[in-house]
Amino acid sequence: MPMIGARVSRAEGEKHRKTLLDRGVLDINFKIAYDGDFIIFPLKEEISGYDLVEYNFLPLEKRKTSIREILSEKIPESYLLKLRAFDAIGNIALIQLSDELISYQKIIGEALLELNPFIKCVFRKDSIEGKYRVPKLELIAGEYTTETVYQEFGVRILLDVSKVYFSPRLSEERKRIASLVKKDETILDMFCGVGPFSLMISKKSNPKKIYAIDINEAAIYYLKKNIALNKTYNIVPIHGDSRKEIKNIENPDRIIMNLPHSSFEFLPDVFSTYKSSIVHLYAVSENINSVKKKIIELSSENNKKIEFITERTVKSYSPNTDIYCIDFAFS
């Protein structure tokens, strides 16, 4: 159906667009038309001072603003309710899908690319496997690339998502721990990965030294790259088993134990190796009291006194479990 349009020269198009917009007569629900050296603006009503013409303007498609909106006509609503949030690590997206959604994975991947122009590829994350905690990945959309740079509170982290474990969801937790570190403290990061805790502490606090250990050689490779990238040269990267490596490290002021499924297995080694320290221990459990109870049991077995400082729920892990962090001192 023909509408009223204002016909102006291309050379003055932007000037008139602003004028019509300011005067409230430009109809932003329709596309601007181009006719040779002229532009025709869709109008809500007639306006004096312009060359007015009739024109069949095309409607402007409303940009979809959520992945569920994009997928609403492609995937059953009951399945969409099971769609989880994705993790953006640099320009790579990782998403876990329920069994019902796997057959729609390519559609979901393309929708993520459409909605997030900064994302270059989307991987389906299946499970985290082995002692290196490396996720099993399948490319579902975009170009295949696994190396990226993630940025967090001024810290740049280079990593390969197919070779190392990394969670962007702990960014606030890393910032919190860094804020607790006092000047000239010695820090032990027992399961450092590519170094997100160590890098944050080095950049945001003023520690004397940070010993960063990981059993995954690829993680230590990227940690060394990240030390150079961030100029955080008070970090000492160590490739090896934390149980053995801590025997050669001085008594730290603060210990980070971010291995939620296995931290308790290493706690007796910490108690037997060091006289005293502050510990930030992460654990997966059904409730926080179970975590505290286990810490008390292990400390008692190793003749250590415990003082609980802070306890917090870090994030949900499954329908029945959460990841908790307990900050405590032992002596």
UniProtKB/TrEMBL annotation:
InterPro entries: MeTrfase_TRM5/TYW2, SAM-dependent_MTases_sf, TRM5-TYW2-like_MTfase, TRM5/TYW2-like_N, Trm5a/b_N. One of its GO terms (biological process) is tRNA N1-guanine methylation. It comes from Candidatus Methanofastidiosum methylothiophilum. This is tRNA (guanine(37)-N(1))-methyltransferase. It catalyses: guanosine(37) in tRNA + S-adenosyl-L-methionine = N(1)-methylguanosine(37) in tRNA + S-adenosyl-L-homocysteine + H(+). The keyword tRNA processing applies. Keywords: Cytoplasm, Methyltransferase, S-adenosyl-L-methionine, Transferase, tRNA processing. It holds the Pfam family Trm5_N.
